[in-house]
Design brief:
- It is a single chain.
- This protein has about 140 residues and is α/β, with parallel strands linked by helices.
- The protein is about 35% helix and about 20% strand.
- It has helices at about 15-25, 70-75, 95-105, 125-139; strands spanning about 1-5, 30-35, 50-55, 85-90, 115-120.
- The protein has a five-stranded parallel β-sheet, with helices on both faces.
Length: about 140
């Protein structure tokens, strides 16, 4: 099982989550690659059985618009046959960006393999554990 953990992080919170997702997948036996959003392309989707995408809430509860959203837009039509999971952190609001992102995946025919993991600011021990569980669900 090959798993990619693709993320964008501005403050390091989502990067911490990505590392925990990768650890959970590795511990469950997956061959894991951790890739920044700017380095992931549609051509790479076929190389993986499962992909976790991580992005913090930005602006008015949206995905990061310079690197992450364009990358996700370019790959989302290729994800319907993959095991996919979502994670990210937020600094305000109640996590509406994740609900919108989940709805977008549903509309694209992407079924999520695990409950999405969100946390406010830096991930605490509980959030790190949930990220590891998310990684294991993808493995």
């Amino acid at each position: 099982m090959k798993t990619a953990v693709v993320y964008w992080s501005g403050t390091g919170n989502t990067e911490q989550m990505a590392k925990a997702v990768a650890e959970g997948a590795k511990n469950a036996g997956a061959d894991v690659a951790v890739i920044q959003a700017k380095d992931f392309t549609k051509d790479q989707v076929a190389d993986y059985d499962s992909i976790a995408f991580g992005c913090p809430a930005m602006g008015a509860e949206v995905l990061e618009e310079e690197e992450f959203d364009p990358m996700f837009t370019s790959v989302e039509s290729s994800l319907s046959s993959k095991k996919v999971a979502l994670f990210g952190s937020y600094g305000w609001g109640g996590g509406e960006w994740m609900s919108s992102w989940e709805e977008r995946c549903d509309e694209d025919g992407i079924s999520l393999a695990a409950d999405s993991v969100i946390c406010n600011d830096a991930p605490d021990d509980d959030a790190i554990e949930k990220c590891k569980e998310l990684g294991a669900a993808l493995a």
